[in-house]
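Let us work through a complete example step by step.
Step 1: write down the sequence.
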Amino acid sequence: MMGSGVFVLFFIGLLSFTTAEDITKDEGVLVLNKGNFKQAMDDNEFVLVEFYAPWCGHCKALAPEYVKAAAKLVEQESAIKLAKVDATEETELAEEHGVKGYPTLKFFRSGKPIEYNGGRQADDIVNWLLKKTGPPAKALTSVDEAKAFIGEKPVVIIGFFKDQTSEGAKQFLAAASATDDYPFAITSEDSLFSEYSVTGEGIVLFKDFDEGKNIYEGDITEEGVTQFVAANSLPLVVDFNHETASKIFGGEIKSHLLIFLSKEAGHYDSHLADAMKAAKAFKGQVLFVTINTDEEDHSRILEFFGMKKDEIPGLRIIKLEEDMAKYKPDKYDLSESGLTNFVQSFLDGKLKQHLLSEDLPEDWDKEPVKVLVASNFDEVVFNKENDVLVEFYAPWCGHCKQLAPIYDQLGEKYKDHETIIISKMDATANELEHTKIQSFPTLKLYKKETNEVVEYNGERTLEGLSKFMETGGVYGQAAPDIEDEEEIDEEGDVPAKDEL
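Step 2: predict the structure and record it as tokens.
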């Protein structure tokens, strides 16, 4: 879900139900609507509800994992139920629960909702739900139980505490309760202390990759344990895919080195060993991520960074804060020393942000809608003699394509106006230091004399846009709290940080 905001949907029309309806199931998932929603909440203490749209790409990707999660809960004889609501049909229900994007998942405990913030894979969904409905850490009473627990998942954490009422144990359990992605266990049994060579209080993270396990050191605090798990629960170099995406971009480590490689060209064989060596020095500070550029699904990532296929193997560093900052090396050196120097320069604050820019077309002002790029943006837009409307668009965005003919008509209407300029900029290929665009299309009016910026949030019609211009940005202007929203294109795609 990209950037700092989410796409707001305005729900039109209300459906009326006078009697409760039967609750049906679709592959083990309850199908809810306005008529049976309350009944489902009354009948079940724990319900995870997905508000979805049939056309949404993210919803389609989630669907099979959601069904798998429901099946796993049935196998475990869990009282937790999974349900779904078609928010495009059940508009009143979606609005009632504050649905602002697709998919939205909410967990209801005795009818009271909390936001779901777990992963999108079946195991992640089940783990999150079990954490929210049971003890934060499983009690282990034998070596066999511990071995079975360790073998169940790629990453597990066990706390060894002779006194489970100690302050260290309390801090460990607090961290377990706050960490949804990985299972925790706790034990006081002497046989387990002996089996795993633990003396005194201890915490061990077991994993089926890299060094196999990590031992916690230092004072036991909730924050310390959380950071320990974040630093050690992913491989030194993690490959980006649908399963790892949420852990990469939703994790505690916000600085990432992205290594773009082609498996077909043998880049993984050539460069992965050096990446592993370099990553050890930055464990817990910078996450090393490989991206296979042969995957068709990853093509938009290259577009996002303005990279061409002939730049592979290539590098970028990103820093995830309110906005995403990107950094590019002077040259692509994927040796251990090259990677180390690039990352260290970033940590030392020696790198300047990398902003994308296209070359300025010679005929940029030939058509009624003027073409802006990063290099001519300030000169055109901040000219105080003109009111300048800018459409920030993405070439792949469905809503942008729908707006294009209307926007061209708007440009034609004002092509001879003395003080109004209609313009557009491909915001996926051009970035501005002073303006961050997080939704497509975004329409901003830069007012003459003051350069005040007003965002348009009215209907995307020639009449609506014309009124916006004629009223100096009063008609249809966006409320201040809407300016950071995101938009979903017709495939349900959001240009998101956790989607890279």
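Step 3: interpret the result. The CA atoms of residues 49 and 417 lie 52 Å apart.
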